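Lab notes, practical 5.
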Amino acid sequence: MMKSVLKIISFTALVLTLAPSFLVFWGYIEPSLSKILMLIGTIVWFGTASFWMNKTEENEEEVI
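Output from the prediction step:
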C-alpha cells in the first residue's frame, strides 16, 4: 500500500518536473515560476523514488 502511494507521488513529481517547460513554451507561466516548480518536482522525485525503485519484493527470498 505504501509503495503504491510513493509511486503515485513520484510520478506526479516527475510530471511537475516536465510540464512547466511546456507551459513556458506555450506562454501560460513565466520562466521564474517554471524554475520553482521544476525544483520542487525534482526534490520530491528524488525524495520518494529512492524508496521504491530497484527494490526486490518483500515476499521474494534472496538467492545466494
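Observations recorded by the TA: The chain has one domain: 2-49. The longest helix spans residues 2-25.
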